[in-house]
Amino acid sequence: MRLVSAITAAALALAACSSGVLEGGSGAAQAASQAPAKHPVSGLPVVDLTVSSKSGKHRFRVEIARTDEEQARGLMFRTQMGADEGMIFPEIPPRRPSFWMKNTVIPLDIIFIGTDGRILNIANALPYDLTPLPAEGLASGVLELNGGRAAQLGIAAGDKVSWKLPEKGR
Question: Whole-model pTM above 0.85?
Answer without folding.
Answer: no
